[in-house]
Amino acid sequence: xxxxxxxxxxxxxxxxxxxxxxxxxxxxxxxxxxxxxxxxxxxxxxxxxxxxxxxxxxxxxxxxxxxxxxxxxxxxxxxxxxxxxxxxxxxxxxxxxxxxxxxxxxxxxxxxxxxxxxxxxxxxxxxxxxxxxx
Amino acid sequence: xxxxxxxxxxxxxxxxxxxxxxxxxxxxxxxxxxxxxxxxxxxxxxxxxxxxxxxxxxxxxxxxxxxxxxxxxxxxxxxxxxxxxxxxxxxxxxxxxxxxxxxxxxxxxxxxxxxxxxxxxxxxxxxxxxxxxxxxxxxxxxxxx
Lengths: 134, 145
Known about the structure:
The structure holds two protein chains of two kinds. Chain A is built from three helices and eight strands. Chain A is α+β, with helices and mostly antiparallel strands.
């Protein structure tokens, strides 16, 4: 089971390599799902790793000791059934194909495990039926 | 403008069911309106039956480049089965596809209309107005200095 880590960084540690720490110190294979740096040097990174809970906790402790703010990201798409009319506009913009329409009923479906919180679907939805719980 | 007045007479908008009349906000485009319309087609002969029974493979849509303003020509044609698969190919490049109308909604409208017809609540009346014989769209012509 993949764990998604949300890592906030700031001007002081923006040059630090989170991936290097996860690879060399914890022997993990990090998959960077999202990395965003703002103009002031702060930013957010979402990294996916496959590791037991103890290792995840150790990673968080180590990253936090370096000034990063790491936490397990337990987000998923929130889908408002009352607003959604299953038009499907969200399906083609989803980079991980998390969202799809049911083959038989053509109703909105999602498997939140693969969501990378890119927010593409939120912008694509014409009735604003989607949001993230982060 | 004459048409909206007549449309108002046919169906007062404020009495419509909000399920089938929805305001939309489309990012990068603006506001729009989604309307669910059910049109009963009387099957009077074999020919109408055949035309109504066509599959997704037999319904075609054009691929257009919307950055071309005037005299736009279709780049390619795809059938609905291809479009519904989620990906089409154009010049060797894969393009993700999705609809902007709801198949689930269309089926709801059809079921409700069928329900009215079965219960005998759907009545015919004389045409309120004829559809326009001549209509054209104004192209968005690029302004040049």
